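LAB NOTEBOOK - FOLDING QUEUE
OPERATOR: T.R.
BATCH SIZE: 2
PURPOSE: Compare the predicted structure-token outputs for two unrelated chains run back to back under identical settings.
PRIORITY: normal
REVIEWER: second-year student, initials M.K.

ITEM 1
FIELD SEQUENCE / FIELD STRUCTURE:
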Amino acid sequence: MNGFTIRADNQAPIRFLFYADSAPETCKAFASMLPFKRVFVHARTSGQEVWTDDSPRLDVIQENASVFTEPGEAVIGPSRPLRARTANCMGIYYGEGRGLDACNIFAKVLDEDLGKLRDLGMKIWTQGAREIHFEGLP
């Protein structure tokens, strides 16, 4: 599996590709959790990001970890080191943003799907939380 899709409501799927070279353990652990669904809300301080503090628990270390992201990147908080404030959190940046603590940056939306991701982010910003379904990308 080289990535995943997300879908909210009845919209078309939004495709992401894994950063398998820079975050291999995170990608492998995340892929093993698929499919799943979680409720995402809009971030308050980290910019154009939707996030949840109820992500799948991945027993991974920090890899490719940073607070600096690019639009379209997906991040997840590592369980180690224990001091990580982002453990059990997951975010998807649909525009500019900066995290509050380092997360593992493990995937990025396909360029042609960035507009759909921005639409979803704005919908969550203006209309509230949404359940997002995650599935493997063949």
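ITEM 2
FIELD SEQUENCE / FIELD STRUCTURE:
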Amino acid sequence: MAYNEQLASRIRQILKRKRNLEEKKMFGGLTFMLNGHMCCGVEKNNLMVRVPRDRYQDLLKKPHARVMDLTGRPLKGFIFVGSDGVKMDSALKFWIDQAVQFVRSQPPKKAKPRSKSFGKGKKG
């Protein structure tokens, strides 16, 4: 299991009315991009949320919240919330609201042009 599908479905329900929402597989899980920025996601049974740096330390003090560390280096501004911390829909909504609030404070990213494949099907 790469990520908890049930948690992903619950996140979709909360975000379903948001514009410029995209899902991408990243970090070995699923992320939800809003206006081109990573907003939140699911990694195994953990909720990943992007939070404002000025609220980062305070939010880490919340139950079941911890530093997001995938490679041995903590990602500042990103928090993991364990499954016990998002059992209640109100708790999940709280964390998603934190992430949406942060992303909305950022200017939208412009879509990157798709790169062309070179050499595919051509010889020489």
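REVIEWER COMMENT (ITEM 2): The longest helix spans residues 89-104.
FOLLOW-UP: none requested
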